[in-house]
Design a protein that fits this description.
434 Repressor (Amino-terminal Domain), 9-stranded mixed sheet, DNA-binding, 242 residues, LexA/Signal_pep-like_sf, LexA-like, 2 domains
Amino acid sequence: MVQIEEIRNSFVTRLKQSLADAGIPEWGAGVRLAKMAKVTPKACSKWLNGESMPGGAKMLALATALNVRVEWLEYGRGEMREPAVLSPEERRSPPRSFDLKDESGYTGVMQLTARGSTGAGDDNPHVEIRGVMAFKSAWLRANNLNQKHLDVIYANGHSMEPTINDGDVLLVDESRVEPKDGQIFAMQSESKGTIVKRLVKSDFDGWIIRSDNPAYRDETLRDGEINEVRIIGRVVWRGGML
């Protein structure tokens, strides 16, 4: 519990620093933040008081509105802002549009070196584009999947077996960052790095991070503690050896 309080307090410090740099006084800051993140002022007051933290989508909205890096705002990693010497074009994420002229009817999805642990967690301090993986365009459309929001990563570990095996290819939809009962997500926390687990709504208005392999214990998140875990995206497909 002490660790969670420290994470929240550190976030509050960075949030207030971002507000000050943007010329927004603390008085009435909750209302300004509410407009940025499209939530209630009461929710923002809890953020400012260290009672809870924004989820992935809200954290990104705040970072964008305050012109700071989301990794810095959430975890304190790296610089507060992108280097000023970079142009807007250079600051953009790697392109997610791939020309597959030789593969009519297929869409290319960015394949990353990142690994999502199905066990204790994976630290991915440096992620590179490994290549492009082709998916049928009709299949993506039928499942309401947009290429711009998709990444391919790899599973590492055995805790999600038999659903996901070690080394499996995982398709992650980064537009789906709200927790959903029973769905599998790629998530990131300060203490564990990147993990791939199932989220289950608990009876006490909290969440359970669950492994499909019964040999691994549940992790319980009470009340607003789900906001200390950044949801990268929902795992919508897996591929691997039988």
